[in-house]
Amino acid sequence: MKTLIRGAKILGGEPQDVLVDGETITEVGTGLSAEGAQVIEAGGKVLLPGLVDLHTHLREPGREDSETVLTGTRAAAVGGYTAVHAMANTFPVADTAGVVEQVWRLGKESGYCDVQPIGAVTVGLEGKKLAELGAMHDSAAGVRVFSDDGKCVDDAVIMRRALEYVKAFDGVVAQHAQEPRLTEGAQMNEGIVSAELGLGGWPAVAEESIIARDVLLAAHVGSRLHVCHLSTAGSVEIVRWAKSKGWNVTAEVTPHHLLLTDEMVRSYNPVYKVNPPLRTEADVMALRAALADGTIDCVATDHAPHPHEDKDCEWGAAAMGMVGLETALSVVQHTMVDTGLLDWAGVADRMSFTPARIGRLAGHGRPVAPGEPANLTLVDSAYRGPVDPAGFASRSRNTPYEGRELPGRVTHTFLRGRATVVDGNLT
């Protein structure tokens, strides 16, 4: 099957035509034609490589009431993603070769998006004993990223051993930086708002102290460390310092930490309850600047679906997390592109090229060029409209953006040349 995308702005540049034949991009230029090809008139829309998410919670196995691999990958396709990394905090935990292979095979069957499982660092996410890291890497799933996300690997010896182990096969440990003793009973960011609302505070130092320890451990071992969902200005400075030393440290930021602040918690609406918590305006500005200058390497959604009953309740009882796959690109356009901090080439780097490189994900995060896999996302950057969760492909609706007007809309997504989204609708 051939597809001709006519007049698309590749990475936001001048309009060009892109010809896809089967699974591969065969030509890029102007005035292209191809007999029998399906023609898509891009009309100046932005063409990006398929987006890659390093941090997605697909919930299967065990919490299919909130999401499944199928519904999660459908949501990913709508958001412009062609690959996602599925976190390990499932039931049972993805701490064995058998469980990660199950998730990987479910991803293959979905057909909407490639699913790369993330293996747990410790057995049962309990932080006491290393999981079978080598077996998960050697499995059909080929796991390269390991994380106890949702919990911190707070034992320094366990963290050191994990870094040593994964170094043997160029793996990476993705750390959920949260010192547990400093966050006991925490409900939101520790600061003026938490004091006024009488909610337990979550201090910035709880994140920053773990990151400081772990960059030193990574340097000592000579291994790769990835910091999940960076959320404070202090964390930015620690990562910037580690990179200045030449240490192999990368970091991600979520869309919601680029836009929302702890002021939203004054509503007591649990949709704003998330881990790590929403921080201050100063933190938000520091995160944007760090993403722009490359201190923060990439954007990751931390897509965390929850069923209605886990969010529509009092603040203290509510689960932490927000869905994010279907709104991520719009939030990044709003906070980074429309503010002039990044151009579309920068978006492609932070949301495709770099996350694919960190995850060592072959076939994704590739240039839009002849001979490359046709994993593509076409974006109508001129679109503006309110977010309506009723139309989400995800099984859950816990978005903080309901009713908010956001820019940009994915009109087409292609996974190896096959359209998974056409005119904004799933195929």
Describe it.
- Helix 4 (156-167) crosses helix 6.
- This protein has twelve helices and 19 strands.
- A hairpin with a 2-residue loop joins strand 2 and strand 3 (24-29).
- By secondary structure, the protein is an alpha/beta fold.
- The two termini are 16 Å apart.
- Strands 1, 2, 3, 4, 5, 16, 17, 18 and 19 form a nine-stranded mixed beta sheet that branches. The protein has a five-stranded parallel beta sheet with strand order 9-10-13-14-15. It has a three-stranded parallel beta sheet with strand order 6-7-8.
Whole-number average pLDDT?
A: 97
Low-confidence stretches: none
Task: Give me the count of strands.
Answer: 19
What is the percentage of strand-forming residues? 15-25%
- Considering DSSP H and I runs of 4 or more, what fraction of the residues is helical? 25-40%
Describe the oligomeric state of these chains in a short phrase.
single chain
Enumerate how many helices there are, as a single number.
Answer: 12
Question: Main sheet?
Answer: 9 strands, mixed
Report the structural category.
alpha/beta
The whole-angstrom Rg is 21 Å
Q: State the separation between the terminal residues, measured CA to CA.
A: 16 Å
- Shape descriptor reads globular
In short:
The chain is α/β, with parallel strands linked by helices. The protein contains 12 helices and 19 strands. Helix 1 packs across helix 2, helix 4 (156-167) crosses helix 6 (204-221) and helix 6 (204-221) runs parallel beside helix 7 (233-244).
